[in-house]
Structure formats: C-alpha cells, structure tokens
Amino acid sequence: RLLGSLLKTVNDTKFNSAVFLLTGIPGQEVIHLWISIPFCLMYVISIIGNSVILFLIKTDPTLHEPMYIFLSMLAITDLGLLIATMPTILGIYLFNSREISFNACFTQLFFIQSLQCIESSILLLMAFDRFIAICNPLRYASILTLPRIAKMGLVCVLRGITTIFPLPLLLKRFQYCGDNVLSHSYCAHQEVMKLMACSDIRVNSIYGLSLSLLTVGLDSLLIFLSYVMILKTVLSITSHMKCLRALNTCVSHLCAVLLFYTPMTGLSVIHRLREDSSPLLKILLGYIYILVPPLINPIVYSVKSKHLHARISRAFCDGLDHRNSLGVAN
C-alpha cells in the first residue's frame, strides 16, 4: 500500500510537471516575428475599439439604453477573450514560447469556453432586444428595465461558468499519451481531448456535445426563431421606408451573429467530422473564431448605429478642436 502511494505521488508529480506544446503556423517558423505584426495590430485595434465603445456608453447618458447596454456586455466579453488568448498567441510569434503547463492550459481553456458561452448568451439577449423593439415596441421600456437587464447579464455569466466548469475537471483526471502537441496557439477543448488516446473519453465527448447543443445550439436556434418573428412583423408593415428602417436596426446584430457562429460551426465540424481536412484550414478557422469577432464588432456597430457613430465623431472633432486650440495658444 505504501509503495502504491509513492508510485501515485510520482505519477501525479510527472503529470503536473508535464506540458502541452502549442503550434503557430507550421513551416513558417522563420517568419514568425513578421507574422506577429498583424496579430499585434489586431489585438491593439480590438482592445482600443472595444474600450472606446465601453467608455462612450458609460459616459454618455443618451446611450444608456438596452441595446447599448447589451453592446457593452458584448464588448466586455470580447475584451476578456482577447486577454485570455493574448499570452499564448503572441508568446509563440514574438518569443517562440510554445510550452504551456497542464494547469495553465486548463485555465485558459476554461476562460475561453466560458467567455464563448457568455457571448452566445449575450447575442441571444440582443436578438430578444430587437424582437421586443420591432414586434412589441409599446412595451419595450417596461420589459427591458435596467434591473431586469442586470439580472439577464448575471444569468449569462452564471450559465457560462457553471456549464463550462466541469470541462477542465473532466480533462484533468486522464493520462495523456503521444507528443502532447496541440494544433492551435491556444488550448481548445477538442484538441486537448484528442490527446487522451489511452483513456476512455466517452464521458467527455458526450458532455462536450451535450454542452454545445444546449448552449450554442439552443441559442442559435432561438436567435433564428426570433428573426423569423421579426421578419414576419416587418413584412406586415405597409410602409416600405418603415420596413427598411426596422430591418436596418438588425444589421449590426446579424453581422455579429454570423461572425460568431460561422467560424465556430466550421471549426466544430472539422474537429468532429473532417479529421482529414487541411491543417492550415483548421489553424486559420481557429484564429478567425478567436480574433475576428472582437475586431469587427466595434467597427460594425460604430458604422451602423447612428447614435454611436455621432458620439464617436463628436468626440473625435472635440479632440481635434482641443488640439488646435492648444496649438494656437502656444
């Protein structure tokens, strides 16, 4: 019994000291430093864009409306996703740092999956916001009150944490085989699970699939149904201009939905059904899935939202006027 305990301790120590190896773009290691430039630009633009959105919504009372509050929730989630992935992605391309410990990998995996689940929930809330605004505008203010919106946001966070929390625990209890090389620059659940070849992973597979269906799958279905109802209501409007105006308020959200769900679905299909697909395609989809929505969402909403666009233009003009006045004074 004592010998068995000592062997278990040795195995646990070996497990805890083991590492995963992350992957950049295979075959392009020589130019990784140059490849880091667009990644750095994407991170900087995404962080500035989402931070500006948050600052404007917080400081401008005219933007304290349900649609913009949900947008601020989306921006916070995107910032969290950028912070969760930045150390490993930039670490590979800037410093050629590929190793990540098991515990660090599981922690990153938890935050990425949780934030993705939260973002899916927020996109559903934004679809609900558009549904109420178009299909039942007279009750919009009474339904989407600030206390109710706060409770909705809290439910989104709790849903993301509680549903994803078992994933790293389920992954950590297995022995890992092979060379421990992941095909992404960050820890993805499907990739880590594939390295458990010497273990029975049916529980993990069933839980992961059920989780996808009950969160992302259910959210996307409800978003689709909400837009069916919106389209039905809009088509019943006799005025052509009012019909177009109502649809125009949904364009930004539809872009955010497509940017979020399209690469996620493609990556999931490749991991589960198309093992023979190109590794480069898998890597590119992985980057699009993580980096493109936080980059594009602020741009789309800034362009399509008249109030937000006007507020950004006014802030920019005020900044130029202040700079010019300082130049004249000097």
Automatic annotation (TrEMBL):
One Gene Ontology cellular component: plasma membrane
GO BP term (any one): cellular response to lipid
SUPFAM superfamilies for the chain: Family A G protein-coupled receptor-like
Membrane topology reported for the UniProt record: Multi-pass membrane protein
Residue intervals of the G-protein coupled receptors family 1 profile domain: 49-301
Gene3D superfamilies, sorted: Rhodopsin 7-helix transmembrane proteins
Domain of life: Eukaryota
Primary subcellular site in the record, as a coarse category: membrane
Location of the protein in the cell: Cell membrane; Membrane
One function term, GO molecular function aspect: olfactory receptor activity
Transmembrane segments: 31-57, 69-94, 106-128, 149-171, 206-231, 243-264, 284-303
Keyword Cytoplasm: no
Keywords for this protein: Cell membrane, G-protein coupled receptor, Membrane, Olfaction, Receptor, Sensory transduction, Transducer, Transmembrane, Transmembrane helix
UniProt family annotation: Belongs to the G-protein coupled receptor 1 family.
PANTHER family the UniProt entry points to: OLFACTORY RECEPTOR 56B1-RELATED (PTHR26450), OLFACTORY RECEPTOR FAMILY 51 SUBFAMILY AF MEMBER 1 (PTHR26450:SF29)
This protein's name: Olfactory receptor
Protein source organism: Gopherus evgoodei
